[in-house]
Amino acid sequence: MNRIVRIAVLVSGGGTNLQALIDAEKSGIISSGKIVCVISSKPGAYALTRAENAGIDAYTVSKKECKDQAEFEDKIERIIRKNGAELIILAGFMSILSENFTKKHEKRIINVHPALIPSFCGAGFYGLHVHEAALAYGVKVSGATVHFVNEVPDGGQIIMQKAVRVHEGDTPEKLQKRIMKQAEWKILPASAELVCKKILTGEV
Ligand code: GRF
């Protein structure tokens, strides 16, 4: 079997999760899929440079330049179609997709969230806010979750989770970094491979 799943990665920022996916493809951790395009919602995001450095087509769809969510999603949809992408990976993509979009791609969009869902997730829980909330609550363990994306923010079926210890004296920044290193950069590529395999075998 040599069919491969074409992957679009949606980003908004630094793109360390994108880098983990690129590296995993190079090292063979991802062998059932191939990143064919990267789409950033933010012009100039460093993730775009990472894509270009890896020879991957990179696009910007600036949300600010779209008149509404429908136009924003329509532009993304066109790029995805043009590149024949079957799986969409949200890797630090800072925009919530509408039900109209998620319904068209059921079980074909995955996201990485930097906490153990159902804790510290949903609208408003993004970036450092997630880690601030976890530390304020006093949890001793946090982590990351990869899940399918549906119309409920962070509400789709869980694919993988990895727990990470909270240390005494942690700041949100320290916890964020540890969770990325120990969990996100590992379970996102592993989940991508798992979902690609399932797409190829028709399990999802
Ligand atoms: C990550 O913590 C991810 O879980 C969250 O946003 C951050 C993105 O980081 N959704 P990067 O752009 O992949 O470096």
Précis, in short:
Helices cover 39% and strands 22% of the residues. With 204 residues, the protein is an alpha/beta fold. The protein has a single domain (5-199), classed as Rossmann fold (3-Layer(aba) Sandwich).
Structure commentary:
This protein is of the alpha/beta class. It has a single domain (5-199), classed as Formyl transferase, N-terminal domain (Rossmann fold, 3-Layer(aba) Sandwich), CATH 3.40.50. It has helices at 16-27, 46-53, 69-82, 99-104, 128-137, 172-201; strands at residues 5-11, 33-40, 57-60, 87-90, 109-113, 141-148, 158-165. Strands 3-2-1-4-5-6-7 form a seven-stranded mixed beta sheet, sandwiched between helices. Helix 1 links the parallel strand 1 (5-11) and strand 2 (33-40). It is globular. The mean pLDDT is 97. The structure holds 5-O-phosphono-beta-D-ribofuranosylamine.
Question: Top keywords for this entry?
Answer:
7 strands; 6 helices; 204 residues; 39% helix; Rossmann fold; single chain; seven-stranded mixed beta sheet; binds 5-O-phosphono-beta-D-ribofuranosylamine; alpha/beta
Put simply, the count of helices is 6
Number of strands: 7
**Radius of gyration using CA atoms only:** 16 Å
Structural class: alpha/beta
CATH architecture: 3-Layer(aba) Sandwich
List the helices and strands and how they pair.
Elements: E1 5-11, H1 16-27, E2 33-40, H2 46-53, E3 57-60, H3 69-82, E4 87-90, H4 99-104, E5 109-113, H5 128-137, E6 141-148, E7 158-165, H6 172-201
Parallel strand pairs: 1-2, 1-4, 2-3, 4-5
Antiparallel strand pairs: 5-6, 6-7
The chain binds 5-O-phosphono-beta-D-ribofuranosylamine.
5-O-phosphono-beta-D-ribofuranosylamine (GRF) is lined by residues 11, 13-17, 47, 91-92, 112-114, 127, 180, 184.
